[in-house]
Design brief:
single chain, 10 strands, 8-stranded mixed β-sheet, alpha/beta, 430 residues
Length: 430
């Protein structure tokens, strides 16, 4: 166990002191105990270091608002221990730290495994909305739904003790640190940089993962020059917990055979294999549960999608499926063209423009609706603002501003509507 200054991370070691160091990075909401089933075998060959995210597992609550900051704290921890070179395996947010290490600190990294990871985790709005829930209700609603995100239904039903462990692990996390980690994931996007990952990489994913599934894994493999993909059947997001033996076998094989040569500080380069081609390697006999998939071919140049396709996606992300389904169901031969127009141009063109993020667009939209007296549209857009990451206090400030510039009666109506929506959205379901 470690004493933990604010710029470092809580950690523990297992395995021989003179063995090469292998680091295991956790997922958001978990602790280093998510790796308990892998450690006994890994520690036979490596000096295994596990760490906790800030505010997780009893670690000091010093929030880190970006993946880069988490990575800097990990490196500061390793520097204090005299660890210069290491292998790294990370799950989800821990995987994001692994990619950051490979991109910004390649001289430190010998080999990499990315588990349930993605170059971009969903949308920024999804994680900001999660932050709204935590700010308003604490972590209990997130904790109660964690097993649904992390495990297949059959596993959760058959393993009630592990399911309860997962709930308690999230429930005891520091809320401020959890929110900061959500912000870190919201801002993380390394899709344009994947080609610069020069370390041998195993991309591992559960076949039933609905959070960062096989599609995201294939994006990583397609972008990273020296990467292999393994899909573990019968596993969801927290695959090291749900299928521990399969994950352990894969990690042992990968780190035993793909440990990159030492970085040459004189030339500033690392000796790589003769060609960065993606090998198709036979799996050893003991890894029977694993389906090894050849890397996907390079994708053709991107073609801009139809504005309608973009629009309906953004419209659903911002307003929610229930609202959009109602609007489309009410359309008939007379109004269908208007729904197409709104979807294509308002949502597919304006809301898709990069100049403002969705939080700012929600602020502008709320103010404009109050100014124009469109009280009937305030409820769905207040709900959308919460989904997009605005807090109830921020919505209140927007409406107070409209009282000054749009008139007290208009703001009064808006406060009534927003108050009801906020009560509905921030009251935990029974």
């Amino acid at each position: 166990m470690s004493e933990t200054p604010p710029n470092t991370l809580q950690y523990r070691f297992d395995g021989p002191e003179d063995a090469p160091v292998l680091i295991l990075g956790p997922s958001l909401g978990t602790t280093w105990h998510m790796w308990d089933r892998q450690v006994p075998e890994l520690a036979q060959q490596w000096r295994v270091l596990r760490f906790d995210l800030p505010g997780h597992g009893g670690a000091p609550a010093h929030p880190a608002g970006s993946v880069a900051e988490l990575t800097a704290r990990l490196l500061a921890t390793l520097d204090s221990l005299g660890v210069q070179r290491f292998g790294y395996a990370g799950c989800a947010l821990g995987g994001a730290v692994g990619v950051e290490l490979a991109l910004r600190h390649p001289e430190r990294l010998a080999s990499l495994a990315l588990i349930a990871a993605s170059p971009r985790f969903g949308t920024a709005d999804e994680f900001r909305q999660r932050g709204v829930i935590v700010r308003t209700n604490g972590l209990d609603p997130i904790a109660r739904t964690a097993p649904d995100r992390w495990f297949t239904g059959g596993f959760a039903a058959a393993q009630p003790a592990i399911t309860d462990w997962a709930v308690q692990m999230v429930r005891t996390t520091d809320p401020g640190c959890y929110i900061a980690a959500c912000e870190a994931l919201a801002a993380f996007d390394v899709r344009p940089e994947l080609g610069r990952v020069g370390v041998p990489t195993l991309v591992l994913v559960g076949s039933e993962d609905q959070v960062t599934g096989p599609a995201e894994a294939r994006t990583l493999v397609a972008g990273i020059p020296d990467a292999r993909l393994a899909v573990v059947p019968g596993a969801s997001h927290l695959v090291p917990v749900e299928q521990p033996a399969a994950v352990t076998d894969l990690l042992v094989t990968h780190f035993s055979t793909a440990w990159q040569p030492v970085f040459d500080s004189a030339t500033g380069q690392t000796a790589l294999p003769a060609a960065l081609v993606k090998p198709v390697q036979a799996q050893p006999a003991q890894v029977q549960p694993i389906a090894e998939i050849a890397p996907a071919p390079a994708e053709p140049a991107a073609v801009r999608p139809d504005p309608y396709d973009t629009g309906i996606k953004i419209r659903r992300e911002v307003l929610g499926d229930a609202h959009v389904d109602r609007e489309l169901a009410q359309a008939d031969a007379f109004s269908a063209d208007f729904q197409d127009f709104v979807t294509r141009y308002a949502w597919g063109e304006i809301w898709d423009r990069p100049g403002l993020d969705r939080r700012m667009r929600s602020v502008v939209t709320l103010a404009a609706l109050v100014a124009a007296g469109h009280a009937e549209e305030l409820a769905p857009h207040t709900r959308a603002a919460l989904r997009g990451g605005l807090t109830p206090d921020e919505i209140k400030e927007v409406l107070l501003q409209t009282a000054v510039y749009c008139g007290v009666p208009a703001a009064h109506r808006a406060f009534r509507v927003a108050q009801q929506v906020i009560r509905e959205e921030t009251t935990p379901a029974e």
